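Same chain as my last thread, 142 residues:
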Amino acid sequence: MARAQGTAPRGAERTTGVRNARLKLLLLGALCLLPGVGAVQMGWSGQTWVPLALYPLVSLISLLLYWQDKRQAQGDAWRTPEKVLHASELLGGWPGALVAQQLLRHKTRKLSYQLVFWGIVLLHQVFWLDYLFLGSRFLPFN
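reply #2:
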């Protein structure tokens, strides 16, 4: 039986967009809840508004770094070092990095990279949990 002209063979269908986009947006929102509430609380308490400004700014930078690295990977050009990507995530750009990973499908399969990435996300969550609920008991603030 002949295939219709212009159809791809089985298994070669190209998917577009982000798979399970709603679920992933929900996860992103849940992960951003503690940092968002904590950054607002930090600002309202008179400490500093820097984290509230830093998260979106560094997230945008992270997204752009991922985009640049993806383009460089496709063109066999000089790549952005992973330590630069991780540094941007550590400085607060992990939400932008997570979005970039999904939109660009970049750095999602390398297990060693993902372990460090999710460790950074966990570190941010622990920081804000400690700040909000334990009075910075384990961190040198306050």
